[in-house]
Amino acid sequence: MHFSTLVATVAVAALPALGANFDVTVGENNGFTFTPSSISGALAGDTITFTFVSRNHTATTTTFTNPCPPPVGGEGPGGFDTGFQNAVGGAQPVSVVTLADSGTHFVSCRQNGGAHCQNGMVLVVNPTEDQSLAAFTQHARNDPIQTDRL
After folding, report:
1. pLDDT tens for residues 98-112?
2. Which side of the chain, N or C, has fewer Cβ within a 10 Å radius?
3. What is the total count of domains within the chain?
């Protein structure tokens, strides 16, 4: 009896901890949107599932102050880039990324040389008071297109 309880306890303790998943819809209502546009409480090992529902978009990490367009492959350590996901014609591609850390990440769309980003197509993972969604969105709307990042 005690042996089986011990084995069951060890087996449960040996299971890897499963991270949380955050669902994000990309291009809802045919717009330049990530829904939700902010995720809080994400930790290393958590995943973000991006479901692309319209047009052709990316979810790519970028910088806070000069986000448009985000660089191919993503920005910084733990950066990610879903690549272009074509949701034209009813397809709904899904891309899952695993967060490498629990830091703040800024995400925007690379499409059209950064124009989608400038139209406010942005997402913040773990925003802070100083690096808020509102401030990031303002940077995106005011950012001149950086052709060296295309």
Report:
1. 999 999 999 999 999
2. N
3. 1
Residue type at 118 in one-letter notation: Q
Structure tokens at 60: 């790519």
65-88 pLDDT, tens digit each = 999 999 999 998 889 999 999 999
Asked if residue 100 belongs to a domain, the reply is yes
Query: pTM of the entire structure?
Result: 0.86
Residue 101 to residue 38: CA distance in whole angstroms? 16
Q: Which residues span the domain enclosing 43?
A: 21-142
Q: What is the DSSP string of 10-72?
A: HHHHHSPPPPPEEEEEESGGGSS-EESSEE-S--TT-EEEEEE-SSEE--EEE-SSS-SSPPT
50 within some domain: yes
CATH of the domain at 71: 2.60.40.420
Residues 114-132: b if buried by 16+ CB within 10 A, e if exposed: bebbbbbbbbbbbbeeeee
3-class secondary structure, 143: coil
Q: Is 84 within the bounds of a domain?
A: yes
Residue 71 placed within a domain: yes
